[in-house]
């Protein structure tokens, strides 16, 4: 219950950032320096994630390749396929840019912290979740830009080259993560003394990016382009997408013969999309595009997935105790 309350607080803070950006958007030279500060915060966050990840858990998790392969298929094949097939229905309703945001969300890797937290809460394979979620984020730094370049920007910007974006994402996310891994023997003992540090950077950097993204979007006229009924339709579309994927993630592992602990891990790692990596990627990939429109779907989907997964994880945890 405490975890769910914490998630609710973060949801409230996200909404407050959107309201703050709507009422007091940051712009001009101040926005430039704020973006630099945000970039530094994101780099520090991924450095801490690298230092936090146990190498023993990585090695143990890597041996379970069948489970990781199925999570990979859900994350980078099933999600994108549903997003692409929904285009004839969603693009006329949302418009091109908001649909791009929905499709970009489908191309993103899984979450790390919430996948591990919910797997642990529901008594799943935690080591497998650590490895699978982390691998999803690392490989997503390369796959997501390629998917975006081919299915989104490649259709409107024929000279778009994903190589530059991959290099930028690698420098911002992967390099700090690797440095954290290398310095783990020195950093992790200090992190254990201050366990809230990663959470502060995790949530704080996301809040900063959301505020910056929505500030620029508000200045560009976001709320003149997105109506209340469009937000309702977007929430419904995200809910339908999550329902379809969760049903597949619930029954397919059973059919393939995975044990109960692995089924739980696959369910939580396969059904979520990352906001922490997604917003920084969007900043790099969609330069010159209305970023608020691009990140709005992942913000809504993120809240839905946390609330639904929290209820399911709590239910499964109680069921195993009985």
Structure in words:
The chain is mainly alpha-helical and 322 residues long. It contains 16 helices and no strands. The protein has helices at residues 2-23, 28-52, 55-62, 65-85, 87-94, 96-107, 113-121, 126-156, 162-182, 184-193, 196-219, 222-225, 228-255, 260-270, 278-285, 291-321. Helix 2 packs across helix 9 and helix 13 runs antiparallel to helix 14. It is globular and about 50 Å long. The two termini are 18 Å apart. It holds the Pfam family SBF_like. InterPro entries: Na+/solute_symporter_sf, Put_Na-Bile_cotransptr. Keywords: Membrane, Transmembrane, Transmembrane helix. The chain crosses the membrane at residues 7-24, 30-48, 69-86, 98-119, 126-153, 165-183, 204-223, 229-252. This is Bile acid:sodium symporter family protein.
Number of helices: 16
Strand content: under 5%
Considering DSSP H and I runs of 4 or more, what fraction of the residues is helical? over 70%
The ordered H/E elements are: HHHHHHHHHHHHHHHH
| Average pLDDT, all residues | 84
Quaternary status: single chain
The rounded distance between the terminal residues' Cα atoms is 18 Å
Unreliable sequence segments:
1-7
Radius of gyration (Å): 19 Å
Tell me, briefly, the overall form: globular
> Main sheet, how many strands, which sense, barrel?
none
Number of strands: 0
Structural class: mainly alpha
Pfam families: SBF_like
Transmembrane segments: 7-24, 30-48, 69-86, 98-119, 126-153, 165-183, 204-223, 229-252
Protein name: Bile acid:sodium symporter family protein
Keywords: Membrane, Transmembrane, Transmembrane helix
């Amino acid at each position: 219950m405490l975890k769910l309350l914490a998630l609710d607080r973060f949801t409230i803070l996200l909404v407050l950032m959107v309201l703050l950006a709507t009422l007091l958007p940051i712009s001009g030279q101040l926005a430039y320096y704020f973006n630099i500060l945000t970039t530094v915060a994101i780099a520090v966050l991924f450095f801490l994630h690298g230092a936090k990840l146990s190498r023993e858990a990585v090695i143990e998790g890597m041996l379970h390749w069948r489970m990781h392969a199925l999570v990979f298929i859900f994350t980078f094949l099933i999600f994108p396929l549903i997003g692409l097939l929904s285009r004839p229905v969603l693009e006329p309703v949302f418009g091109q840019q908001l649909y791009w945001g929905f499709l970009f969300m489908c191309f993103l890797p899984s979450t790390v912290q919430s996948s591990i937290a919910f797997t642990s809460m529901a008594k799943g394979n935690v080591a497998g979740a650590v490895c699978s979620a982390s691998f999803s984020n690392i490989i997503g730094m390369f796959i997501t830009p390629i998917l975006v370049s081919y299915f989104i920007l490649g259709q409107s910007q024929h000279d778009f080259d994903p190589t530059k974006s991959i290099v930028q994402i690698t420098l911002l996310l992967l390099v700090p993560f690797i440095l954290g891994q290398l310095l783990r023997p020195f950093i992790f003992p200090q992190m254990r003394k201050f366990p809230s540090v990663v959470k502060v950077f995790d949530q704080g950097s996301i809040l900063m990016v959301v505020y910056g993204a929505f500030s620029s979007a508000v200045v560009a006229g976001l709320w003149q382009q997105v109506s209340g009924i469009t937000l309702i339709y977007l929430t419904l579309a995200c809910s339908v997408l999550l329902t379809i994927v969760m049903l597949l993630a619930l029954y397919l592992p059973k059919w393939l013969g995975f044990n109960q602990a692995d089924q739980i891990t696959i369910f939580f790692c396969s059904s979520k999309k990352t906001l922490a990596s997604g917003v920084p990627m969007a900043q790099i990939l969609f330069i010159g595009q209305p970023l608020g429109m691009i990140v709005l779907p992942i913000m809504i989907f993120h809240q839905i997935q946390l609330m639904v997964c929290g209820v399911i994880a709590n239910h499964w945890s109680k069921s195993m105790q009985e």
